[in-house]
Write a structure and sequence with these properties.
- The chain is α+β, with helices and mostly antiparallel strands and 139 residues long.
- It has a four-stranded mixed β-sheet.
- The protein folds into two domains: 6-57, no CATH class; 86-138, no CATH class.
- It has helices at 33-69, 72-91; strands at 6-8, 15-17, 22-24, 29-31, 93-99, 102-106, 113-117, 136-138.
- A hairpin with a 6-residue loop joins strand 6 (102-106) and strand 7.
- The protein is 41% helix and 23% strand.
- It has two helices and eight strands, in the order E-E-E-E-H-H-E-E-E-E.
- Bound molecules: zinc ion (2 copies).
- One zinc ion binds at residues 9, 11-12, 14, 31-32, 34-35.
């Protein structure tokens, strides 16, 4: 009947069963099971901390991307451009489409309505007052 041999751990000074000691590379000596367990926890903690730092870094990078996307100057320039396009559209003379090649054009000067042929680009002047036909948007 083998008696359990106790040994004192050189790392922590605790007594543990001699056959449970493990040569641990990070301690550079035999360490008791409790030291190994503590070390494992420490490793885990360190890994978790590292992961947290990496996550933080990733989050920061994501925020930076969003900040770049939301650059106020870029955004306001974009909005201005959109507003300009919108204004141009509103300003543009709108004509009603009658068929594939005809639209109903209203003279901007005398308000005379006449058929404008898209295929022939005619007439180029209002038949009533002679005002030049403006460029328009077909609705
Ligand atoms: Zn120990
Ligand atoms: Zn006219």
């Amino acid at each position: 009947m083998a008696e359990e041999v106790k040994a004192i751990c050189k790392v922590c000074g605790r007594a543990a069963n001699a056959n449970e000691f493990v040569l641990d590379a990070s301690f550079g000596m035999m360490a008791c099971p409790m030291c190994i367990r503590d070390k494992g926890n420490k490793d885990k903690l360190e890994k978790e901390q590292q992961k947290r730092q990496e996550d933080d870094q990733k989050k920061r990078e994501e925020n930076e991307v969003i900040v770049t996307k939301g650059d106020p100057e870029v955004e306001s320039a974009y909005r201005e451009k959109q507003q300009e396009i919108e204004k141009e559209r509103e300003k543009a003379l709108k004509v009603k489409k009658l068929d594939e090649n005809k639209v109903k054009y209203t003279c901007q000067k005398c308000h005379y309505e006449f058929i404008y042929k898209l295929d022939k680009n005619s007439p180029s002047n209002c038949p009533y007052c002679g005002e030049k036909v403006q460029s328009f948007v077909v609705e």
